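re the bet — no i am not wrong, look at it urself. input seq straight from the record:
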Amino acid sequence: MKEMKDRTHDLGRATPTATTVGDVMTRNPLCISPDTPARELARILEANEISGVPVVDGLDRVIGVVSRTDLLRRVVEGPQGSRPPSFFEALAEGLTDEDLHPDNLGTVEEFMTPEPVTTRPNELLSEVARRMAEDRVHRVVVVDDEMHVLGIATSLDILRAFPR
């Protein structure tokens, strides 16, 4: 099993109720621009062994988040306007290699989740975990007051904070 890069967090004597998201987040995460092609996104996720990344604008402010699930959904559904009524119909109609060619999948902006769930580094982990469950998300982007990305916290980062 491969070791996780930059994901070790020293929680010291903190308990999950006193721990903040800043204590467990991955600092300075990789971010991408909205014009990143789908193929490049796949390379980035695979090369860095991550499941999602924040999307930032030209001023490095977070504008979205994109994940492996978003990319897979894009592969299955195809570019905007070409989506079959159902996955089963697509299979029945016979997807071609051309339909699945990465160059035809567009850019991240077309399938990212806009306005991702964000938090500040001083927010209590228990509150962030509650919001993640309510919003049914697996990651939150940790930002400053100007929406610049400071870190990212995943559901696994949060689970690691609980005693074993």
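see?? The chain has seven helices and seven strands. told u. also Residues 21-160 form a domain with the CBS-domain fold (CATH 3.10.580.10). so pay up
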